[in-house]
Each structure stands twice: as structure tokens, then as C-alpha cells.
Amino acid sequence: MKKILIIVACLIAACFQNSFAQLKIGYVDSDAIMAKLPDAQDAQQKIDAFVQEWQDEIDKMQKEWKTKYDDYEKRKLIMSDERRISTEKELVALEKQIADYRQKKFGVEGELFKKQDELMKPVQNRIFNAIQEVAKENEFDFVFDRSGDIVFLYAKEEYDATNLVLEKLQ
């Protein structure tokens, strides 16, 4: 909500600054673009294949853990203390192995994000460049993406107030 208010305030300020000129605003739906672009679909299929492979490995590891845990539960009363402690350590180690694998593949800096960056970045760059070209050809002052959070995909340099704000702060 704050983003929307800030954007609206910027647009109103820009309108007052150029009261004789009318702003020309456009928007795109990047989700629709990605859904219709064959390169994006190919990249997404590759990512999905990696995710499925990794998820299958996690499922296999969890099944192994479950089998060992069930066996442990059945036998723990007849196990020696030494054997029970050893089996419990083994189960804890397997749990840690599963968690580490999940983190390595799906964590914040995991392979999934690296693969997404590797495979989707070129497609996203092509889309972004096309948006900029369309914005310039159609003389849009601003272009928004309506598919998620409101994001400026293009804005004319004349509306950039960054240096003015920096001057005020000094």
C-alpha cells in the first residue's frame, strides 16, 4: 500500500512540475509475457526438471529415514542402550543430511536460485529490453508491471529525483 501511495505522489508531483505536459503511462503483465514466450517456457521446464529431481532425492532420503525410524520404534525396547543410542544418532544424522540437502538445493542461496538466475536472466533481460524499446517508441513516461508488486519497468530520466534528494540530504 505504501508503494502505491509513493508512486501516486510521485506521479502527482510530476504532473505539477510539468503542468502543461500530460504524462503517458503504460503497463505490462509480465506473467502473461512469460507464459507466452517459448524461451521462458523452455527455461521454466528445465528448472522444473531440476526441482523434480531434487524433490525425488529428498523423498528417497525421507523414505529411508522413515524405514529406519519405524524399525527403531519396533525394536527399541529390546535394543541394548549402546545400540539404541547409536541408532538414535544415525536417525538424527539422517535428519540433518535431509535438512542440509534441502537447504543446499532450495535455500536462499541454493542451487534453485542459481539455476533460475542462470536460465531466466537472459529471458528477463530480453523482455526488459523489449519493454524499454516499446516505451521509447510509444513515448511512455512510465511503464508499470501489473502482475505482482507495482514496479517501474521504465521511467524517463527527467523524472528521476535521486540527485535532488541527495542534494537535500547534504
Plain-language structure description:
There is one protein chain. With 170 residues, this protein is mainly alpha-helical. It has one domain. The protein has 6 helices and 3 strands, in the order H-E-H-H-H-H-E-E-H. The protein has helices at 2-17, 30-36, 38-75, 81-106, 111-137, 162-169; strands spanning 25-28, 142-145, 151-155. A 3-stranded mixed β-sheet has the order 1-2-3, with helices on one face. A hairpin with a 5-residue loop joins strand 2 and strand 3. Helix 3 (38-75) runs antiparallel to helix 5 (111-137). The longest helix is centred in the N-terminal third of the chain and has 38 residues, at 38-75. The radius of gyration is 27 Å and the shape is elongated. The two termini are 29 Å apart. The mean pLDDT is 82.
Total count of domains: 1
Strand order of the largest sheet: 1-2-3
Helix count, per DSSP? 6
Portion of residues in beta strands equals 5-15%
Question: Span between N and C termini?
Answer: 29 Å
Q: Give the overall average pLDDT.
A: 82
Secondary structural class: mainly alpha
What best-fitting shape do the alpha-carbon axes yield?
elongated
Radius of gyration: 27 Å
DSSP strand tally: 3
Main sheet: strands, sense, barrel: 3 strands, mixed
Order of helices and strands: HEHHHHEEH
Q: Unreliable runs, pLDDT <50, ≥5 residues? A: none
Fraction of residues in helix: over 70%
List keywords for this structure.
3 strands; three-stranded mixed sheet; single chain; 170 residues; 6 helices; mainly alpha
